[in-house]
Specification:
By secondary structure, the chain is mainly α. It is built from 6 helices and 4 strands. Strands 1-2 form a two-stranded antiparallel ribbon. The two termini are 13 Å apart.
Amino acid sequence: MGSSYTDFKGKGFWARDGQVEVWLYLLVEEINLIKDAPNWLKKLQEEWHIQATVGFNGCVTAGLDESIDTEEKRNYILALSESALEKLRSQGPELTVKAEYSYGVDGPDTICNAVDYRIHEAYAVEFINLLNGKVKTNASTSQVVWPRDVPY
C-alpha cells in the first residue's frame, strides 16, 4: 500500500493510504447521520466515499482545497472530524478485521490482523491540526504520519 499526501492551503502531510481511507470513511459515516445535509456536503460525502473504498494506490485525496472555500465549511468539517475521532477512540484499542471491512477499505480480498486504532488516530489528529492551521509541513518536508509507539 502506498502513501498519499493530504493538504490544505499550501500545507500538508503524508500518510499511508489505509489511514486516509479509514478516516474519510469515518467522515462519510458522520455525514450519513446528518438530516438534510447541505448540497456541498453531500457532494463531498460522495467523493470521500469513492476515495475511501476504491483502493487508489498513492493518490487518495480528501480534496480539502476544492471543497472547503469558506470558514463555515471548515468549521463544519472540523465538527464532523471531532465527532468521528471520538467514535474512533471509543473503538480502541484495536480495530478488528470486521471493523476494517465495515469501513469498506481495501476490498474483500484484504487479509490483515487487528489494527491498533492509534494508527488511524494519528491521521485523524493531524487532519484536524491541518484544518486548524497547525500543520507547518509540506510535501517535501513532511514525514509519514504514524504513532511513535506503534511498529511501522
